Amino acid sequence: MPTDTPIPQPGDELCADRGLYKHHGFYIGNNAVVQLGGRVKDKPRASVHHVSYAEFAKDDRVQVVEQDHLDRAGAVRRALWLLDNPPPMSYHLFGYNCEHVARWCATGKIQSRQARDALTVNSLIGGGLFVFVEQPHGWLVGLVQLIFGLLLAWLSRGSTRRFEQHIRDNWSG
Q1: How far apart are CA 31 and CA 8, in angstroms?
Q2: Long-range contact list for 65-73, CB < 8 A, 24+ apart?
């Protein structure tokens, strides 16, 4: 572990900086991290499983994600339950990714700041930037970009809803 990396405690959401993206996991203790992961080139087969802290970190910089009002024991229970009851669904960049899984384990809330921020940036670029492009149809390009972003957000919501439904139907904690 690099010296600037904090030693995680059971119940911590972790974030490894992979350069182009951030990978999230959840520390359950005993050097084990629960993650939604798999080979980068084979994301549809990503699964909820546990790996060692070293496998999770891959020599990248790892940070503990700060959470308000963290119930560590409850968070670890959610992560262990998810290991035994993985959702029957495929990875989705915006609707069901590693951050959705790690955040639910840590807080009980299904959310991904990375996905939200990417969709927001897409909408802002589409809705704002192209309007000012000095092209005869810059506004049209901006409108198409905005509609594309909104459609992508709407389509990705289905994956998030399936994850939520899996938890509602099966989690008793």
Answers
A1: 9
A2: 65/12, 65/13, 65/14, 65/15, 65/24, 65/102, 65/106, 67/13, 67/106, 67/107, 70/11, 70/106, 70/107, 71/11, 72/9, 72/10, 72/11, 73/11
pTM: 0.77
Find all residues with CB under 8 Å of 28, minimum gap 6, and list them.
10, 34, 50, 76, 79, 80
Cα–Cα distance for residue pair 106/110, rounded to 1 Å: 10
- Which tens digit of pLDDT belongs to each residue from 26-52? 999 999 999 998 776 777 788 999 999
Non-local (6+) Cβ contacts of 153 within 8 A are 94, 119, 123
Contact 111, 22 (CB under 8 A): no
Distance separating alpha carbons of residues 165 and 96, to the nearest angstrom:
12
Token couple for 35: 């993650």
Q: What is the pLDDT of residue 5?
A: 63
Q: For domain 13-170, give its CATH number from 3.40.718.10, 3.90.1720.10, 3.40.50.300, 1.10.287.370.
A: 3.90.1720.10
